Amino acid sequence: GAVTVTGTEADFKIGGHTYDAVVDGQATAPNHYLDIQSAIDAGAKAIFVKPGTWGAFATSGTGVKRIVGAVAASCFVNAACSVSTNDVLIEQLNFLQCVVTNTGDNTTFLGCAFTSSGGARSGIDVGSNGNDMLVLFCQSLGATSNWIKFTAAVERPKIVQCRIVDSADANPLIYDNGFQVLQGQISACTFDDNSNKAFLVSLTSSFLWIIAGNTFKSYPYGCINTNLADISGNFFNGDAYTITTDASFSSAITLTVNIP
């Protein structure tokens, strides 16, 4: 719906929240900026992003805490971004064929979309210090290669109530890339028609993933992992679902479920 902005000086009230910067692509009013990076560089801590297509941004060395799009369906980011400061909320942005590198503690991605096409990846690389990341109410659309990939050992990532559809290749959706992940959680997500793609692959002794309450639709491949704390409450619909506990990808299958 329509977005109403009140205030022209230091603070703006939008949808019940307070922002100190608005990205509108025009920058003709006080505290309005041409792009997200300009607002970050100006020292903004809470940034509201109007519909449009925006370029790369990086939070390094800044105090930004919230970057919120008006609606993910029309707030696009089309270049690689990085979040390296702690406690940052990224909300309702649609990342088009680009990757967000997260090396900040307690980063939250809320209601975002990651849209891949033409062989270009869109997703999140989780690097050193990227502990306690929360990916909530997000979508991965046409995932090419890995949607979420770990590039360092991290702790307690949570992927909750997300929707993953129409994956484009056989690479795993969530991939630890040989790094140890402590107490990861994938819960209440929907995996829809992602044929030939494992939803979680661990190449090392990742510690105690919780995989609970997810829905798998026509999804023939499962999880390759060495330590699972919980795999209860999942709903399987369609082809055989497999879990392999050997990181070599070729050992005996330990669980197969087939519900017509």
Give an overview of the whole structure.
The chain is mostly beta strands and 260 residues long. Helices cover 2% and strands 39% of the residues. The protein is built from one helix and 33 strands. Strands 4-3-5-7-10-13-16-20-24-27-30 form an eleven-stranded parallel sheet. A nine-stranded parallel sheet has the order 6-8-11-14-17-21-25-28-31, with no helix packed on it. A nine-stranded mixed sheet has the order 9-12-15-18-22-26-29-32-33, with no helix packed on it. Strand 32 and strand 33 form a beta hairpin. The longest helix is centred in the N-terminal third of the chain and has 6 residues. The relative contact order is 0.08. The C terminus is likely disordered.
Number of helical segments with 4 or more residues = 1
Low confidence ranges: 246-260
**pLDDT average, as an integer?**
83
Query: Which strand order do you get reading across the main beta sheet?
Result: 4-3-5-7-10-13-16-20-24-27-30
Number of strands: 33
Shape: globular
Distance between the termini: 41 Å
Radius of gyration: 19 Å
User: Biggest β-sheet, characterized?
Assistant: 11 strands, parallel
Helix fraction, binned, reads under 10%
Structural class designation = mainly beta
Strand content: 35-45%
